[in-house]
Amino acid sequence: MKARILIMCGGRGARLGSITKKFPKPLVKIGGTTILEHKIRSYMLNGFRDFVICVGYKAGSIKVAVKKAGLSAFCKFSDSGEPAGILKRLYEARDLFGGNVVLTYGDTFAKVDLKAFLKAHTKGGNDATIVVAPIQNPFGLVEFDSKGKVISFREKPVLNYYIGYAAVNKSAVDKIPKHMIDMPDGKGLVKFYKHLMNKGRLGIFCYSGPQITFNTEDELRIARRKIVSFYTSREET
């Protein structure tokens, strides 16, 4: 079975204020189309046809939107309820995917080459592979000891951060330690990644292309401007 794509759409998106009181964050429109539909159609252009959508908050609205977009034939739903964290949503959806799954957040849109990503994940022999992107810190990063003595000073260092895409083996999901599953929000997922890291089973895939994500109304305004350059970039490749 070709790897399925699992899209996390269960959170409340509370930092968007009144916007997400009306509808869930993945249904926010950018360029006249919901971020969720942007994501699914982008993946379909790259040959993917099987999606698992993990819902929770206003799950019915997401199901209706998927149907109206004509995408129901390609999507299955997993509903762990509103309080569930990301790791629990992944765990409870595990019977809907095969040997591995691409996990992605419903509010993040990036031009990751998923076929190359999955190939790298398989070649690396890891239980999970996370996508990381560079960002230059605009400030000098200072570290100091308990006596107030500076021990490190890095001027505008380039840092690598996780952008919300991962390839995860079902065998690793099946073995998630029980005490992690019910941890709230993204805490369980981070704990799971650290668990795999300590076992030497967590890999990385580097990405430096365009991406769109938003957590606040200001970031949403930026995302709506960036969607134009995102499609321009895609057409130029």
Written account of the structure:
The structure is a single chain. The chain has 237 residues and is an alpha/beta fold. The chain has helices spanning 19-22, 35-45, 59-68, 86-92, 114-124, 170-174, 178-181, 187-198, 217-236; strands spanning 4-9, 29-30, 33-34, 51-55, 75-79, 100-105, 108-110, 128-136, 141-144, 150-154, 158-169, 202-206, 211-213. Strand 2 and strand 3 (33-34) form a beta hairpin. The chain is globular. The two termini are 29 Å apart.
Q: What's the β-strand tally? A: 13
Helix coverage percent of residues?
Answer: 25-40%
β-strand percent reads: 25-35%
Rounded to an integer, what's the Rg over CA atoms?
18 Å
Mean pLDDT: 89
Class per helix and strand makeup = alpha/beta
Number of helices: 9
Report the biggest beta sheet as strand number plus sense, adding barrel if it closes.
7 strands, mixed
The geometry reads as globular
Note poorly predicted spans: none
